[in-house]
Fold this sequence. Notes:
Blueprint: H1 4-55
Amino acid sequence: MTTQWALAHKAEQRRMARRAWCNRTHSAVTQKVNAIEEGKVNGHTAFLKFASGQLLFLGSI
């Protein structure tokens, strides 16, 4: 016979397992989004360096 405590404990373990799965999924999605955003920032930085190199010659005309 299973006690009420054991049933409550099993139920809590199931809830925690669902939360852990959700956290793993969230973490994987967050990592992908961060990688995409990092690529955007790096591309923007490269553009700014390229553009700033061109702006140096505007005053020499």
